[in-house]
Amino acid sequence: MNLKIALLPGDGIGPEVIAQAVKCLQAVEETFNHQISCTEAHVGAIAIDRTGDPLPERTLQLCKNSDAILFGAIGAPRYDNDPAAKVRPEQGLLKLRKELGLFTNIRPIKVFPSLLKKSPLKEEIISGADFTIYRELTGGIYFGEKKISADGTKASDLCEYSEKEINRIAHLAFKAAKARRRKLTLVDKANVLESSRLWRKVVTRVGESYPDVLLEYLFVDNAAMQIIVNPNQFDVILTENMFGDILSDEASVIGGSIGLLASASIGDKSALFEPIHGSFPQAKDKDIANPIAAILSAAMLLEHFGLKEEAKAIETAVDKALRKNIVTIDLDADSKYGTNHVGDFIANNIVDSDDNFNINDENIGLGKSTII
Description:
The protein is of the alpha/beta class. The protein has helices spanning 14-32, 45-51, 57-64, 77-80, 89-100, 123-126, 163-179, 194-207, 220-229, 241-255, 292-304, 308-323, 339-351, 361-365; strands at residues 2-10, 35-40, 68-73, 104-110, 130-136, 146-148, 155-157, 183-188, 214-219, 236-239, 262-266, 271-275. Residues 361-372 have low confidence and may be disordered.
């Protein structure tokens, strides 16, 4: 298969982790005889610095002309700490989602058995947890009308949804649940919010087309608690934009690190894949950022195009790295492995998938891997 990928490394640790994902795509290209071409462009704070625009027109056109987008992270402290800033890195990502119609965000939450002890939650609670969050991505409070009074003392953000916006993501979530364990949980705040009551009405109606999928409802405050106390009850969670943003980050603690969580943002014609961890500027250029979320995002990209064996090869190599404890310091405070070494190990194990070979761990730590 020939794939054209737009690479948007962005800010902070984005370029470092995306570089490791590219290594893995190159390993897949070599191992499975595909042609994967990657073209890089700026987005976020680095784009503002160079062009004054968080999403330059060149970047947008590249994305529109590519088969998929592999995205790093955006954000910088100088904008986070300046509430008066009129142009912000995050505006680039929001505009990209809107321009490409990326209305569905998919975030898998899965526990690796080798990491059960890494989670701050009890093993007996999280063991076997495996669910997916479907978050609506181009509507709601993030995109609604924003107002601030002339004297700056009163502000509002409008949360607005249409039946069409809810209907299209609901069908995708039900189809996903039908292919999994046939349970869908709608998370809303229908006891308070009119927009949530519309969500509940539309999703209930869509659910009638999927009689073999059990539909349940949770208010968002209860859902936030249940994700922590009993994550195994969930299969597919469907929710609106802001609730999904918060709940998916909360769910990251189940697996032991937000550095493990990949995501896909899907539209009718475009697809973007990214780690959910953000730019983490404190770790920039220190070779300590966890690249696994970016690497698993590349695996989701491949699976999106039907390359299931190739995606599985990446996932298997990631699992091997975790089992051998070849991880960054967010997963092991005493680890001697950095971002690049973890990426090299995973990429090398896509090329050589023999699970029984021996690794000289000391040389891996020095960046001199030796396969015996």
